Amino acid sequence: MFKSFYLITGSISLGLGFIGIFLPVLPTTPFVLLSLYLFGKGHPQKVNEVLNHPRFRPYIIDYLSKEGIPLKAKIKALTILWISILSTIIFFVHSFPLRIVILTSSSLVSLYIITRKTIK
Fold first, then answer.
1. Are residues 6 and 50 in the same domain?
2. Which of 44, 65, 86 is the last residue of a domain?
3. Cα separation of 28 and 9, whole Å?
4. Which domain-ending residue is among 23, 41, 65?
5. Are 43 and 11 in contact (CB under 8 A)?
6. How many domains would you assign to the chain?
7. How far apart are CA 12 and CA 108, in angstroms?
8. Host H or E run for residue 106
9. What is the three-class DSSP state of 92?
10. By C-alpha distance, which of 79, 105, 80 is closest to 23?
11. What does the alpha-carbon distance between residue 118 and residue 98 come to, in Å, rounded to a whole number?
């Protein structure tokens, strides 16, 4: 019973990680790492699939190596993040409190990215 739970929640987490590759507001690495943990609870073959997947492997390796984030990746992430966020709050979100929440969370994500070690 729990194996099914871990498989389903791991798959959902991996799906969210995949979506996060394309949507800068949704983080990829935490969802991929969570899916590895969940798959590890009863589906080791799934762990290997994720570790060897060409889309997910770079996120896992970069995170685990702790060497840092390439400067080009930081610039790309921050640019896409802020274009998306500003477009969203200008054209789609009309609630002032919600705009504050979005700007605050985006600023925290930006701060996190900026404070990670930069690979030259």
1. yes
2. 65
3. 15
4. 65
5. no
6. 2
7. 25
8. helix 96-115
9. coil
10. 80
11. 32
| Residue 40 sits in the same domain as residue 79 | no
Q: How confident is the model at residue 91 (pLDDT cuts 50, 70, 90)?
A: very high
> Which residues contact residue 25 at a Cβ distance below 8 angstroms, ignoring those fewer than 6 apart?
81, 84, 85, 106
pLDDT of 27 > 80? The answer is: no
Which residue shows structure tokens 């935490």?
30
Residue 56 parent element (H or E): none
pTM attached to this predicted model: 0.58
3-class secondary structure, 70:
strand
Structural domain that includes position 103: 69-119
Q: What are the two backbone dihedrals, phi and then psi, of residue 46, each rounded to the nearest 5 degrees?
A: -70, -35
Q: Can you give the length of the chain in residues?
A: 120
- The helix/strand/coil state of 47 is helix
